[in-house]
Amino acid sequence: MKELLRTPVCTLGSWRPGLAKIAAEKAVGPLLRSIKTVDQWDSKLEFAHKIEDILISFGPDAVPELSTFLSDEDGRRRYCATRVLAKVCDSRALDSLLQALPLLKEIGAHAVGTILAESTNELSHEQLSSVLHTLLQQLSSLGAAGAEAVAKTVTRYSRVLSPDDIRSALRATLNARLSDTDKSVAVSTLIAQDAAPTDLIVRCLYQTERSVLIRAVQILKSRSYRSSNTIEAVAFADAADDWQLLIGIGAPAVAALARRMWNEAEALKALIEIGDSASIDAVVRILSSEGSSWSYQARAAQALCRIGDARCLRPMLEVLTRGHYAFELADDVLVAIQTVFDRAGEQAPDDVVDALASLPTPFRVFYKFEGLHEKFVDTSGIVSAAQAELERRTKP
């Protein structure tokens, strides 16, 4: 073995016939520990692959000794042992792999799935169910790639999962700190099972990954789902893009519609259709937020314009007169103010009409960033209309 460790990588494969005569339990340990002894970084990967080939050639005889390295302090040795066990595909390695899953994460989950695929005929229904149960229990600790590997395994063997296993797996997945994309793989698989409880599928309506929402809606519709409260009704209608249902729900649906207004024309139409104070408040928050993009705020101004309620005038006037903040929005906001005032000026509060009548003509908006930037917008139309309204109100 000492001579082996001094062997150049390029000739390491020639040792395989001699190593075959050495008992696997005596050769596995020294071979794996030798991975860390390579001095040349460029040779490490090639050296590890050569070691893997030799270990694989030992076959099932190497499984007991390889299993002891799954919790080794050196990550490279753990990785190599796991890859070899996955290629040897001996079901005796399953228990050790499952115990080491929190340390091995995705590579361990992939190895378990690979061994299961090759050993299904060797395992009883109870053994297969036990392996899957353990996998699902550790799902939340496996990381994103590990969760995806578990989801693929669950898909393949869903027939042996108990209803309790599916419920616990779905809860674990929904609570796991995974990326939206990777969580969607596991969730979409689990909710498709007949044993997936409706209440947990409803929880999927609050996920951000679109594929999960679509799958949850499909399954809930197939079960003739009826929401038990307004919050669930909004979540379901939002996920299903059911704009008419959202309009029918009214004010409670406004927040969901406002979130989608920036890229969904139908959401904007629904907000306009609802048109009550809740809609106005939601759209005004977007218009007034300095964290919103200019295009998003311009769409908000258009929405207020089309709602056409006198209550829209005050917040739009505040945005227009906010100095540098109004620079990009001034034209859109001014058009909206003019349109709303023409339609509902008689219902506008006195102080708002007075403020509009007092706007400078033309109106200067500017901002300071690496110099002074300014422009003037024509306010003569709204000023004249507001002055006429003031005159009308002061007549006896």
Outline of the structure:
Helices cover 65% and strands 3% of the residues. A hairpin with a 3-residue loop joins strand 1 (363-368) and strand 2.
* Stretches with pLDDT under 50, minimum 5 residues: 4-18, 38-43
- Rg over CA atoms: 33 Å
Binned, the helix content reads: 55-70%
User: How are helices and strands ordered from N to C?
Assistant: HHHHHHHHHHHHHHHHHHHHHHHHEEH
Average pLDDT: 78
Dominant shape: elongated
What do you see in this structure?
With 396 residues, this protein is mainly α. It has a domain at 307-396. It is 65% helix and 3% strand. The protein has helices spanning 2-5, 16-20, 24-33, 41-58, 63-67, 75-88, 94-99, 101-104, 106-119, 125-137, 143-156, 163-175, 180-191, 198-203, 210-222, 230-239, 243-249, 254-260, 265-274, 277-288, 294-307, 313-320, 330-344, 350-357, 380-394; strands at residues 363-368, 372-377. A two-stranded antiparallel ribbon has the order 1-2. Helix 10 (125-137) packs parallel to helix 12 and helix 21 runs parallel beside helix 23 (330-344). The radius of gyration is 33 Å and the shape is elongated. It starts with a helix and ends with a helix.
Which terms would index this structure?
396 residues, 3% strand, 25 helices, 2 strands, 65% helix, mainly alpha
Write the topology of this structure.
Elements: H1 2-5, H2 16-20, H3 24-33, H4 41-58, H5 63-67, H6 75-88, H7 94-99, H8 101-104, H9 106-119, H10 125-137, H11 143-156, H12 163-175, H13 180-191, H14 198-203, H15 210-222, H16 230-239, H17 243-249, H18 254-260, H19 265-274, H20 277-288, H21 294-307, H22 313-320, H23 330-344, H24 350-357, E1 363-368, E2 372-377, H25 380-394
Antiparallel strand pairs: 1-2
Helix pairs in contact: 4-6, 6-9, 9-11, 10-12, 11-13, 12-13, 13-15, 16-17, 17-19, 18-19, 19-21, 20-21, 21-23, 22-23, 23-25, 24-25
